[in-house]
Amino acid sequence: MINIPSKENIAGQSKTIAEPELGEFDDNFTWSAMVLAAQGKKINQISIDEIDWLTKLRRGLEETRKGFVTELLDKLGDDPLTPESLDDLETLLIRADVGIDSTDKVISSLRTKLNEEVVGAEAGIKFLKKELKLIIDKPIKNSGSDLLVPQKGKLNVWLLVGVNGVGKTTTLGKLAYLSSKSNYKTLIAAADTFRAAAVEQLKVWGDRSNVDVISNQSKNADPAAVVFDAINSAKKRNVDLLLVDTAGRLQTKNNLMDELAKIKKIIDKKVPDAIVESLLVLDASQGQNGLKQAKSFAKSADLSGAIITKLDGTSRGGVSLAVSEEVNLPIRFIGAGEGIKDLRPFNSYEFVEAMLADK
User: Which of 52, 221, 225, 319 has its CA 20 to 30 A from that of 255?
Assistant: First the structure.
């Protein structure tokens, strides 16, 4: 999604959303500019928004990096890689919750390279970045779409699923802001009717994004009925993107999965040509527990992508790789902060660079 303000959505945003300002030309600024330049961005194409986001991403992955890159570089120094240093790397990758499968794949590739030539510390890090990016990119490429954006001319319905406490409702609010800022007509369906606070939360996010919320305030309202009403409203308004918040309960509970199936049945019946995405919201700080959630939901919820939240302040940012490799889910968005702008479309190059940024 491109950050171009919509004329119809811009009213009200300036009151609540502070625009980033150009800060000092510090290490974070320089690193961010270099990452953007490496992707072909010219200096006159780089926005303060982009610098601000990359700085947050790098800071957010600092805890992961501390227990990973810093320690690895301390052990390596300027010496070439050895079988012993690969053992150390294996331990560090697993500790960062990269996952067994991803770690095995990376270490195996490095051992092969090590058998063929002498690999210095710098070349080793470069090769590691390449291998990690390949793992994350595979499910994205297999999906046939590098970037998840609503298709114009059709109703796009994005269901957000996941257990309680992962930041699902907050993530939906940030997606609404990102979508409306990118000139997509957006509507929210508050289908988490089991948690009264969720509806109120969404209304606050809707106000901040200038996006309407369809809800049913009656006690124990049927979530599928809320989606039914939201679809009717979306069709009347020619909405591009309908964001649906769903109830978060344990993935092992059949009633949650039955409820999702009922919602999907309503969508298929009302708008058979709609483009439907089921996006699993995962809390990065949960590490391997998050991976278990992804595996369970993938079996029964027909997932099409993942959103990784709360990357800031966790040492388990590597779980993104485990989700890509072991669940074969494309990561679509990542969150690294509590602000309304702190959720962005996932970019594997930027993520790996931030994760392995050398101090």
Answer: 319
Q: Are 75 and 89 in contact (CB under 8 A)?
A: no
Max Cα-Cα span within the chain = 68
Distance between CA atoms of residues 223 and 162, nearest Å:
15
| CA–CA separation, 46 and 51 (whole Å) | 8
Q: pLDDT grade, residue 75 (50/70/90)?
A: low
d(CA 180, CA 110): 44
Report which residue type is found at 342: D
Q: Are 161 and 249 in contact (CB under 8 A)?
A: no
Residue recorded with tokens 């993104």: 320
pTM of the model: 0.86
353 touches 340 (CB < 8 A): no
β-sheet bridge partners, residue 212? 187
Measured CA to CA, the distance from residue 301 to residue 259 in angstroms comes to 10
- Cβ atoms 195, 313 nearer than 8 A: no
State how far the alpha carbon of 142 is from the alpha carbons of 30, 146, 160, 233, 333, in Å. Answer: 33, 9, 21, 34, 17
DSSP letter, residue 329? P
* Amino acid of residue 172: L
Question: Could you give the CA distance from residue 82 to residue 88 in angstroms, rounded to a whole number?
Answer: 10
Q: How many CA within 13 A on the CB side of residue 298?
A: 17
**Strand (E) or helix (H) holding 203:** helix 196-209
**214 membership: H or E segment, kind and range:** strand 212-214
Question: Which tokens is 321 given?
Answer: 């790789």
Q: What is the pLDDT, as a whole number, of residue 9?
A: 40
pLDDT for position 271: 96
Q: What is the CA radius of gyration of the chain?
A: 21
Band the pLDDT of 19: cuts 50, 70, 90. Answer: low
Tokens 């194409």 appear where? Answer: 45
For residue 103, the SS3 value is: helix
pLDDT of residue 176: 96
The first and second tokens of residue 331, run together, are 């990561």
- Got the DSSP string for 224-272? HHHHHHHHHHHHHHT-SEEEEE-----TT-HHHHHHHHHHHHHHHHH-T
